[in-house]
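User: Design a sequence. Structure:
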């Protein structure tokens, strides 16, 4: 990860929150609990899908991969933020900053593809139930996951290769908790207007395009169910509510961060909290509380644990 000769910046300063010691302790506690919830909740879903044979279906295979990505996406930023909170100077090295950016965009790209795959899965299950298992066969499911990683890597590298060549000679203060392309480009010792446009077009178009594609998919499903059920949409809403909720939680911050070139720092920080801490901890709760199969699988697991311990 070599830099141009006129780059003298070896580290960046993350400004984060400026708050009292009491507020800092409170935030450390809150974010530590959120991160613990992210790890436990998502890994629980992952292992539940692996261990329970009744959940060995395309939808839960994709859900398990989504949980794994949520853990990875949060782990790129939240632990660093928690350890930085009590420090007056929140330092991140140039290499660590670039690595963080890459992982954020790779896993963000994977998550977008997984959400599209889950929408396709629900569309197939509702619109073509007799052909569902033939269409959503194991090869297709694995192909979705592989495609997600390929697109994520291409999405991240297509921007990273431009940013890594920029000269950085100061300033080095980032008014956020983490590194990201739009924030780092502004610190380059050159006119980054064109590169800012490329990054905004790349990430913004990907976020907006995926979001509208998902909305169209779920709208098509609702219209199909409405026609088949003589105007009764309640069943479709119950089935899709968790998916639609996750889509809005994930994409709303993304569209603000990448479509809006220069959001206010306070809004940027709040959106960061939503995207990297709130959404990943809510996803397991949303899919668990609103999913009968998951509830039944949890009961089966608890019965096995109880039986093995007391019988």
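Assistant: Done.
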């Amino acid at each position: 990860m070599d830099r141009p000769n006129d780059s003298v910046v070896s580290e960046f300063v993350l400004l984060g929150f400026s708050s009292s010691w009491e507020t800092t302790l409170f935030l450390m506690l809150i974010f530590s609990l959120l991160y613990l919830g992210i790890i436990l909740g998502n890994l629980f879903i992952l292992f539940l899908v692996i261990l329970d044979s009744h959940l060995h279906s395309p939808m839960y295979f994709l859900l398990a991969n989504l949980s794994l990505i949520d853990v990875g996406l949060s782990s790129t930023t939240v632990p660093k933020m928690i350890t930085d909170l009590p420090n007056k100077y929140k330092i991140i090295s140039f290499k660590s900053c670039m690595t963080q950016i890459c992982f954020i965009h790779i896993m963000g790209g994977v998550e977008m593809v997984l959400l599209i795959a889950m929408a396709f899965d629900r569309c197939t299950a509702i619109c073509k139930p007799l052909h569902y298992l033939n269409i959503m066969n194991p090869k297709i499911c694995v192909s979705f996951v592989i495609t997600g990683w390929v697109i994520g890597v291409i999405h991240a590298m297509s921007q990273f290769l431009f940013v890594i060549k920029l000269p950085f000679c100061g300033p080095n203060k980032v008014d956020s908790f983490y590194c990201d392309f739009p924030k780092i480009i502004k610190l380059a010792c050159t006119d980054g207007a064109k590169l800012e446009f490329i990054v905004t077009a790349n990430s913004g178009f990907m976020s907006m395009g995926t979001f509208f594609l998902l909305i169209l998919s779920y709208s098509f499903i609702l219209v199909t169910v409405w026609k088949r059920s003589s105007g009764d949409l309640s069943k479709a809403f119950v089935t899709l509510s968790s998916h639609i909720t996750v889509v809005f939680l994930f994409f709303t911050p993304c569209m603000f961060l990448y479509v809006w070139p220069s959001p206010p720092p306070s809004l940027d920080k709040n959106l960061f909290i939503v995207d990297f801490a709130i959404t990943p901890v809510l996803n397991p709760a949303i899919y668990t509380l609103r999913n009968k199969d998951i509830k039944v699988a949890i009961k089966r697991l608890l019965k096995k644990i109880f039986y093995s311990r007391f019988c």
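The CA atoms of residues 83 and 260 lie 29 Å apart. The chain has a mean pLDDT of 85.
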